[in-house]
Amino acid sequence: MFIVAMATIKEVARRARVSAGTVSNVLSGAIPVSERLKQRVLEAVRELDYHPNHVARSLKLRQTKMLGLVVSDITNPFFPQMVRGAEDAAWKHNYILITFNSDDRQDRERQLLSALRTRRVDGILLVAAATEGDLSHIQCVMEAGIPIVAVDRALESLQVDCLTVDNIAGAQECVHHLIERGHRRIGIITGPPHLPVARDRLEGYQRALAAAGLPFDAAFVRDGAFRAEGGYQAALELLSEVRPTAIFTSNAVMALGVLRALNEMDLESPRDVAVATFDDPPFAEAVRPQLTSVAQPSYDLGYKGVEILLRRIHEPNRKRVSQVLKTELKIRASTEPRTSAMEHDWRHTSAMG
After folding, report:
1. Out of 17-31, 106-120, 163-177, 217-231, which region has the weakest mean confidence (pLDDT)?
2. Whole-model pTM above 0.85?
3. Would you list the domain boundaries of the chain?
4. Which residues contact 129 (CB under 8 A, 6 or more apart)?
5. Which CATH number describes the domain made up of 167-295+330-352?
6. What gap in Å lies between CA 4 and CA 169, rounded to an integer?
7. Are 322 and 104 in contact (CB under 8 A)?
8. What's the CA gap between 77 and 81, in Å, rounded?
9. What are the tens digits of pLDDT across the range 133-160?
């Protein structure tokens, strides 16, 4: 059995003809080093296959250079871009990102925060599983000296930095678009009512109706729990009971459920029912019809979230930050005017004949 000895920082320094302190400065980026010396050090690092002992360094500096990210549902297409943004920002600042999925369950969230606390991460980005009720597990992490930034879902009852999007304005703009298309019987499939993002998107829906002089009717509202199956069941109910001419869903995976329900009922969008959704995942342009969507800056949520977190780590006493990002409405075929959709079908049929 062969044991290969690992190179030390002193050996790298000797190879590069610099001090151990210069090697440390090059690798940490803490103090600027001339390009000539930097290249000598990096060449020595490659030649000796040197890997710094970050565990020992973290014990000395009381920093692990690790950040945690807890998302509510990693299967939701909205979150991968957020994770990518957070990872890019963390890597840029020489941090490693650890990502976990809470499955939107507070009991699992408690376990994950405890695990991150045990591993002494320097800070945590959190998409909270619940934003009301007992949040003592989050408070305990903060009191232990680990800062938390709430991303996507605000935690107004706690003194944490928050980074969200303008859910009310985004939903209002999209429903206004449906009204401009001539729709008056517009259904909405929302998320869990205990989540502010779900309530805000419902409020945007209500504001759009009020601005157009249309009455709000609770019969057109269903809770799809932000899941595809929930969107499917909610759409079946709406289409069987009140038959809207348009459906707005509060996230994109529920829109997939709506399209499935329409297909099973031999209905087409937008000819029979227009469909629009919050979120703009890659499949929005791959499904037929292409989905009209409220695009969120998901990458920016992750990237900016890490930047806010790092500022909090380095300036723990700075004023609390609450930042709101704008959305963008992307209009596609699923909300074409009903006459245009029928004319398109007629031309297609004529061409086939």
Report:
1. 17-31
2. no
3. 9-52, 64-166+298-326, 167-295+330-352
4. 72, 102, 103, 104, 105, 106, 108, 109
5. 3.40.50.2300
6. 60
7. no
8. 8
9. 889 999 999 999 999 999 999 998 899 9
